[in-house]
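Problem: given the chain below (277 residues), write out its structure.
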Amino acid sequence: MNRTTIARAAFHLLLGLAAFGPVPPVAAGFAEPGTVIDQAELATIAGGKAALLSPSARANVLVFFRSDQDHSTDALRQLAGCEKELGPAVHWAALVSGASELSEAKAAAAGAGIKMPVLLDAGDKLYDKLKVRLHPAVLIADGKGILQVSEPYREVDFADAVKAQVRFVLGEIDRATRDRALDPEASHMPGDDPMNKALRDVNMAKKMVELGQYDLAVAQAQKALERAPIPAAYPVLATAYAKLGRCADSRKMLEQAQKLPTDANEVAAARALCAGK
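Solution.
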């Protein structure tokens, strides 16, 4: 996209914001903060049992992963370092579906070097209660087992994001410091300009749509627009809102998309989702 196209897109974006107001807010991903996670003794992949939570810890970190997934393997490797760095104030437990292949889960845990127990979620009860559909993911509860924050996997700076979330729950950093760690200021390195970062956010939003994580797709597309006036965000927003049943919001995004150089097929597909509604 050349500078003229970007400038034109920015102009239309400003017009659109004046006409329609801010992009509607997004619902939280995973279970809502404040959800109570009950203590339980679960079977481990090693053959014994271990506690899901520790009442003596100030933070309980639950790591949901799939043993047959490259992203999960990478996440576990990074979290092995987090275990060492964050110390005894934090209790860690990794969870896999009760239907997982034990040999694969054992190999993934051993290869990553994690010390936390790997627990089997029989019947996927925890997965369902905590609405975990995206792997890998980290959910962090306080010492009373009350969910505070969730952090889905990210390809860049995942360990730093998890550490920031945990330290926030521990009370070691404030919200502003946590937020800066989760979304650091744009780098001035070549190739890392706001438009490129916005494009990566849009691509991630599309992936969230494919995985059925529509609220996360909205959040990612919104982040893209906060970085730069990228037209490709609007069809994704329209699709995600339509999937969430928010057809009025979807139509607003489609009106924006029509004014900008967007993919006609994506726009048509998003429009069809709310046809007649």
